[in-house]
């Protein structure tokens, strides 16, 4: 029971991070491998605001999300759009965007190490225990989970019921057809990329409440988000959430029952099973 | 073989001789640099053999390399040293085949993601096994000198070039070029695309493991966090792409300048190596899409007039 709930709490935050990456990959077609660094930047911003300015991390989100939105919009507009224009096929864009975002990822790590040092950073926010179902859980994890659910839920509602959300989903299905029915694909892609970055940075701020981060930890989160997306299926919100919770529970179970050093190995085992039996995602249909 | 083939063979043999004689005329410093460069030449060239024609970006080098060092670390006391690199190569090839069978049937993204975390995953498993059995790191104390390591790497490099040249002339190489251009066409032409890719992926797997096995005595002390350092995979990708994967000699043209630059940066500003790596990736994507090979070919087309 303890494993299930801890896993669920962790999975909720993972789901939010993976949703951000899924927007970027599903709609804007950019496999953003610098996603984890955006998360660390969000986490660091929360840390800095909390220690230097006594700003509550939850309130800090009001600042972090818009800043991340603008930053990601600029990255898409000036770094990635040239690649989109240059690409002859989706495969060529994938290779280019993978290499370019790797470059950004390393550059970000380099800049963050240079600016803030290579040390770990964490802070104590709501570190008191909370009694639930006979066991105790850290309050900050519960708060992070609740916020992740609220933000993820709002995002889902917006994507499903708003006009702009409909545009984004149309681009995700087929960019060529979407532009035929009057969707501005370039604007929608830029919006999705920026929004995805903002969601990821928000996830980073949430993660920083209960997780010790350092400048180079981003790639680990990128890996996890990627595994979740592939497990859940590209562009599938429901699948992403289920996959994130499965990953959270599997990691917690392995960490507690076998060895805390094996969490990535656990994620890989899941990844392997999905690749072998369900390569189109948990709810995906086999492609012909 | 045509006249150009003979000419290229003669040039290659002369360059190989020049490389092999480095310990004779070079200082100890250059021998150390040469060993590092020879390692990257071997790794980047074998990487490009697979990733050049198929456009699949493999980040598995560090995983195979680490496995190779562990083969030496575990076996050097009970087996003669010359058995270990071939043994590591066989293990590397088998593992590459397994990884390839799982991921190469699917699109390139799955492959990149899977190889991205492979080294870290293997590291976690090896660390866990070592914790269970009570071992931590291990010492590899042999009488092998740096000069011998260097010569073994040069010999392995010659083998890789020979293999690349043979693959380029074989049916497999032809099939892979078609796959790289258009996989659907390749399938319709009756090529078993998955099998061809898996077969070729075994080459860098085997070579990287053999390289690790050869270099293990250089490290003296092996532990999982250094043997499976993921940075190695990225360095190899950068050097190969900087040189260009279109030609067999491309990666060499990337390895030499980048190793020198890397060396200079690590000495001057050790904290900025990651920034350099990032900038190098961006430069390649935005300014040098075909690497030095692409630049050279554009130059020849404009001024050479030869077709």
From TrEMBL, chain A:
<keyword id="KW-0813">Transport</keyword>
<feature type="transmembrane region" description="Helical">
    <location>
        <begin position="98"/>
        <end position="121"/>
    </location>
</feature>
<feature type="transmembrane region" description="Helical">
    <location>
        <begin position="31"/>
        <end position="51"/>
    </location>
</feature>
<dbReference type="GO" id="GO:0006865">
    <property type="term" value="P:amino acid transport"/>
</dbReference>
<feature type="transmembrane region" description="Helical">
    <location>
        <begin position="190"/>
        <end position="213"/>
    </location>
</feature>
<dbReference type="InterPro" id="IPR001851">
    <property type="entry name" value="ABC_transp_permease"/>
</dbReference>
<dbReference type="Pfam" id="PF02653">
    <property type="entry name" value="BPD_transp_2"/>
</dbReference>
<keyword id="KW-0029">Amino-acid transport</keyword>
<feature type="transmembrane region" description="Helical">
    <location>
        <begin position="142"/>
        <end position="159"/>
    </location>
</feature>
<comment type="similarity">
    <text>Belongs to the binding-protein-dependent transport system permease family. LivHM subfamily.</text>
</comment>
<dbReference type="GO" id="GO:0005886">
    <property type="term" value="C:plasma membrane"/>
</dbReference>
<feature type="transmembrane region" description="Helical">
    <location>
        <begin position="58"/>
        <end position="78"/>
    </location>
</feature>
<keyword id="KW-1133">Transmembrane helix</keyword>
<feature type="transmembrane region" description="Helical">
    <location>
        <begin position="225"/>
        <end position="250"/>
    </location>
</feature>
<protein>
    <submittedName>
        <fullName>Branched-chain amino acid ABC transporter permease</fullName>
    </submittedName>
</protein>
<keyword id="KW-0472">Membrane</keyword>
<feature type="transmembrane region" description="Helical">
    <location>
        <begin position="262"/>
        <end position="283"/>
    </location>
</feature>
<dbReference type="InterPro" id="IPR052157">
    <property type="entry name" value="BCAA_transport_permease"/>
</dbReference>
<keyword id="KW-1003">Cell membrane</keyword>
<keyword id="KW-0812">Transmembrane</keyword>
<dbReference type="GO" id="GO:0022857">
    <property type="term" value="F:transmembrane transporter activity"/>
</dbReference>
TrEMBL record, chain B:
<dbReference type="InterPro" id="IPR001851">
    <property type="entry name" value="ABC_transp_permease"/>
</dbReference>
<feature type="transmembrane region" description="Helical">
    <location>
        <begin position="236"/>
        <end position="262"/>
    </location>
</feature>
<keyword id="KW-0812">Transmembrane</keyword>
<protein>
    <submittedName>
        <fullName>Branched-chain amino acid ABC transporter permease</fullName>
    </submittedName>
</protein>
<dbReference type="Pfam" id="PF02653">
    <property type="entry name" value="BPD_transp_2"/>
</dbReference>
<feature type="transmembrane region" description="Helical">
    <location>
        <begin position="274"/>
        <end position="296"/>
    </location>
</feature>
<feature type="transmembrane region" description="Helical">
    <location>
        <begin position="149"/>
        <end position="168"/>
    </location>
</feature>
<keyword id="KW-0472">Membrane</keyword>
<keyword id="KW-1133">Transmembrane helix</keyword>
<feature type="transmembrane region" description="Helical">
    <location>
        <begin position="109"/>
        <end position="129"/>
    </location>
</feature>
<feature type="transmembrane region" description="Helical">
    <location>
        <begin position="194"/>
        <end position="216"/>
    </location>
</feature>
<dbReference type="GO" id="GO:0005886">
    <property type="term" value="C:plasma membrane"/>
</dbReference>
<keyword id="KW-1003">Cell membrane</keyword>
<feature type="transmembrane region" description="Helical">
    <location>
        <begin position="59"/>
        <end position="76"/>
    </location>
</feature>
<dbReference type="GO" id="GO:0015658">
    <property type="term" value="F:branched-chain amino acid transmembrane transporter activity"/>
</dbReference>
<dbReference type="InterPro" id="IPR043428">
    <property type="entry name" value="LivM-like"/>
</dbReference>
<feature type="transmembrane region" description="Helical">
    <location>
        <begin position="82"/>
        <end position="102"/>
    </location>
</feature>
